[in-house]
């Protein structure tokens, strides 16, 4: 189906669409990837699965899943969603005088992140739940959009959505131009991501799978219904939860999956053990100059078992320093 | 986007695709609907939302949701999925000698549906849970496909997937040709539906939202992972659960929704109370000759509040007897 669309765009697509399609077919589909074995492995897989032969995959089965944090955009020095949660707690603080004496809010409002972090997962969960609930889904969507448009990263000073990985954006486009459906399968909050992923990656809300809180259908005083976000966990989309989420939300086993941490291990494994061809990709953060270098010892983006078993499952380990010509879209 | 595709098909689409696109654009897009106010209301809505003006809806927001049982296919004399569950219990019985003395299985195996039904929702839930768990998702998919290919309806003797409503299949096609994304939002089991909905309606698995049991990621003895269906309820996609499911799975408020029972009331209400145009449609089962006539007093497809409030929300009530030229695809 998408083949037809691509072929058509040369004749009748809009000018902008036609340009990107032309660029893809006529020249290098992955210009931000350095030439070499890594880039070639991607192109070989896409070529063989879209060409008649033993490894051909019908369009309806071309399901590609991408982790988000550390795979499609940066996740250092802290998950960007946590930065959002902290900013929201600060904005909510005037209505919560009790937070002045209640941890982890007290420490957070005093800028004492060390104490916040010492509270472990429980403290972080409290911050995320509090900042992501008691609000309608429409209002929350607006809050995220406003934040993405204004907040900036502490080191690069870029807006967070300017810190998507240009090589991965090209990969998403390349896959879609070859009939693949691209999905996000991330531990991040689904409502947080959906507010900006369509613009940043060309991935619409209904192709974004993530963690979520419960929502409740309520009729407001004006008779209008709204969905209100609850302080209860609905789905945790990490580790073994990722193949589970893929089944519950997509309903097909992916044939292409990219991740960067052991939280992606299960979905990579699920992808690589289906019948027929399956491609697993691990983004290895090796570039301490242009981005960050971390793997086995990092709490964020912890990658240990994935590196150990990459050979066993034939996963492609992408070396960011050597394989990527540029990291962010702004680089020339 | 889909506009482009449709336009293209006239030049470069496959023969089969081109034919359906041509048919849509050149002649009547809804040939199985009788001429009149109902059909005109549908065409008017699609026309105004896809034409520049006050009621124009951008392609990315053209989300259309359809209930399945009683809206896209028949649901009488019992939900078709229940017929599947009963057949599966019978097939599983040799491995469960204890069922010979245990209700509701004993009654079911003896063909005593009256006793089964007397067990109420609890008995039905036991039958559905037992027949839908303890099996991998891949195996379950195969069981459903085999059943759909062989089982027949007790009255019409048709295969169940031959009892989809031809006017609704045309409506789905018409909406898609106009840039709408079509989703199923049904109380039925998501894995049961996904096995056949792509073929029957052109709706892929990742656009099917339904009720679901939990699934667990397990590594089998051969080292291969599988997802195993559990006897626990994961999501119940009915009543207020429908707008909740729409949010969790789709992430956008629909602008077009069709249902046939009070189980669809909340999603119809959610659709009709958004900003901008929103279209709600209720399929009213009025044809006791060609199909079944039922509404306020029926336990299956119970429709009471929806009829009461159709005027208030400007929902289009489709009179199956008078508005539909044919019910099933096989009718000429």
Low-confidence stretches of chain A: 1-25
Percent of sequence in beta strands of chain A: 15-25%
Number of strands of chain A: 8
Computed over alpha carbons, the radius of gyration of chain A is: 21 Å
Largest interface: A-B, 48 and 48 residues
Q: What is the share of helical residues of chain A?
A: 40-55%
SSE ordering of chain A: HHHEHHHHHHEHHEEHEHEEHHEH
Backbone shape of chain A: globular
- Alpha-beta content class of chain A: alpha/beta
Q: What is the terminal-to-terminal distance of chain A? A: 34 Å
Output the number of helix runs of chain A: 16
Assembly annotation: homodimer
Q: Biggest β-sheet of chain A: count, sense, barrel?
A: 8 strands, mixed
Mean pLDDT of chain A: 92
3D structure, described in words:
2 copies of one chain form a homodimer. With 332 residues, chain A is of the alpha/beta class. Chain A has 16 helices and 8 strands. Residues 1-25 of chain A have low confidence and may be disordered. Chains A and B meet through helix 1, helix 10, strand 3, strand 4 and helix 12 of A and helix 1, helix 10, strand 3, strand 4 and helix 11 of B.
